[in-house]
Amino acid sequence: MRIFAAIFLLLFVCSAQQPNPDAHPAKTSVNKRDAQRETQNEEKRPQQGATERLRPVTIEQPNAEAKQANPYDARHDPLYRAYLWFTIFGVLVGLLGVGAIYWQTRATTEAARATARSAQAAEDSVALQQIAQKQWVNLEHWRAFKVPAADNRTVLRIDFQIVNPTHVPLTHHLTRMSVGGPQQTVSHVTLIAPSNPYIASIGIELEAEQKEFYERGAFVLQFECTVFFADAVGTHWQQDFVRMLAIGPKGIDMISDTKNILRESTVPPEANQS
User: Fold this and answer.
1) What's the pLDDT at 269?
2) Which of 119, 151, 213, 271 is most buried (most C-beta within 10 Å)?
3) Helix or strand (DSSP H, E) at 94
4) pLDDT for position 25
5) Are strands 138-147 and 236-248 parallel, antiparallel or unpaired?
6) Residue 149: CATH number of its domain
7) d(CA 31, CA 39)
8) Are residues 149 and 233 in the same domain?
9) DSSP per residue over 19-67, as a string?
10) Which of 216, 218, 187, 191 has its CA nearest to residue 200?
11) Sheet containing 184-192, strands listed edge to edge, beginning at the edge strand earlier in sequence
């Protein structure tokens, strides 16, 4: 009995699982309709996508009405107005500062120029004072005559004066002289006042030919002299002279000045020894 019952149940299950031949064609027709619909839907999808791509896009501005309802006006902003006034004030102050710097620079330049002109005027004044106080000497009051000499010699003596033509005394240190022969030195430190000249002299022995020219009044000799002195402010000077003298029995007939040079110098050693 159990065997028959098991066989019966097995057959019942197999019959339940067997497909219905009548129902299969209907299911196939339904599937075909579904496939056609899917195909049509797929064909419509690109068209719908193209339509959606061509559809205009509208950008919403939710706050546009609020902004138009409450616009910003800088004229009613106190902070902006204060900033604007401070900017204008700063520009004006800057312009005033630039103008002040310009005028100050100009005034400084004018002051510097005035100082330079004053300094130049002071230098010119000092130079003029130095020129006015500059001192020199002249050789004046010449004399030439014979002096007695032994052994029938002819000795000619020439006297002259070292004159101070300025208005301030100077100090004589040394005088060197020569007349075509050995140099003679007169070292005598003395004060030469404007009205008190220093007298100097030199003697020469004439040779026979020179004596003959002297007797005929045609004897010409070259006299060289250098005077060392100090001016009133202590500056030492050296003045060189060259004179051409035409001498005859009556004295000096003519004097020609060929050299007169004044330059700064030092005290000569002979004056220091004296």
Assistant:
1) 80
2) 271
3) helix 78-133
4) 47
5) unpaired
6) 2.60.40
7) 12
8) yes
9) PPTTHHHHHHHHHHHHHHHHHHHHHHHHHHHHHHHHSPP----TTHHHH
10) 187
11) 184-192, 170-178, 219-230, 236-248, 251-264
Model pLDDT, residue 210: 87
Q: What is the amino acid identity at position 63?
A: N
Cα–Cα distance measured from residue 189 to residue 272, given in angstroms and rounded to the nearest whole number = 9
Q: What is the pLDDT of residues 123-147, one digit of tens each?
A: 888 777 777 778 999 999 999 998 8
State how far the alpha carbon of 244 is from the alpha carbons of 10, 101, 186, in Å.
180, 71, 21
Query: What pLDDT is stored for residue 26 in this prediction?
Result: 46
Residue-range definition of the domain harbouring residue 189:
138-273
Q: CB neighbours (10 Å) of residue 224? A: 16
Q: Are residues 121 and 227 in the same domain?
A: no
Q: Between the CA atoms of 10, 12, 15 and 16, what dihedral angle is there, to the nearest 10 degrees?
A: -110
One-letter amino acid at 77 equals D
> Residues 141, 185, 235, 233: is their CA dihedral positive or negative?
negative
- Dig out the tokens for 62 from the structure: 């939710």
Q: Are residues 242 and 190 both part of a single domain?
A: yes
Number of structural domains the chain divides into: 2
Q: Is the sign of the CA dihedral 210, 213, 215, 217 positive or negative?
A: negative
Same domain, 118 and 210: no
219 or 180: whose pLDDT is higher? 219
Three-class HEC string of 238-257: EEEEEEEEEEECCEEEEEEE
Tell me how far apart the alpha carbons of residues 166 and 22 are, in angstroms, rounded to a whole number: 166
Sheet arrangement for strand 198-206: 138-147, 154-163, 198-206
The owner of tokens 């002096």 is 147
Note whether 233 and 108 are same-domain residues. Answer: no
